[in-house]
Amino acid sequence: MLSFRQWAGNVWNGLKTTFTGLSITVPYIFRKPYTLQYPEEVPEIPTTERGLHNFEVDLCIACDQCAKICPVDCIAIEAEGKGKFARMTKFEIDYTKCLFCALCCEPCPTECIHMGPTFDLVGYTREEVIINYADRENPRTFSDGEKLPYEIVSFARK
Questions:
Q1: pLDDT for 16-32, tens place per residue?
Q2: CA distance 19 to 22
Q3: Among residues 129, 56, 54, which one has the least CA distance to residue 88?
Q4: What is the pLDDT of residues 24-55, one digit of tens each?
């Protein structure tokens, strides 16, 4: 059974912690709410953000260095030929596996792959988030109907 002193101490600790919590919460009542109506209002993205990859198909020499260094094997490359005369037939990134670690960007000798600012890749199935950057006939289409140019495959919004 609790003595009066222990009971009063418990009540005091309860009141003190409640006051501490309210002193943090109450100032937010008087602030203007910060709500972003996404996707109509796009948040400002920091320059250091690692979003979806930007890949320049024509610069790639199919050296396969990015696929070798990827820790989760989410990059698949197929090409006809090697070196600067290589023609990419498949450069797929599986974004269900991608860690956005940017390790694939470092070993690239031509710097044709780098991280971009776009972060909103959505799809109803897993196949929709596996992007083939080398597919020139069927470029990725956004929900607003905008297609990607095949010269420089990029997810940057206009």
A1: 999 999 999 999 989 98
A2: 5
A3: 56
A4: 999 998 998 888 888 788 888 888 888 888 88
Whether the model pTM is above 0.85? no
Give 139-147 contacts, CB < 8 A, sequence gap 24+. Answer: none
The end-to-end CA distance of the chain, in Å, is: 70
140 residue type, one letter: R
Residue type, 78: E
Helix ranges, 26-144 (H): 65-69
- Residue at token pair 């320059």: 47
**Are the C-beta atoms of residues 92 and 132 closer than 8 Å to each other?**
yes
At residue 141, φ and ψ (nearest 5 deg) are -115, 135
Separation of CA 126 from chain center: 16
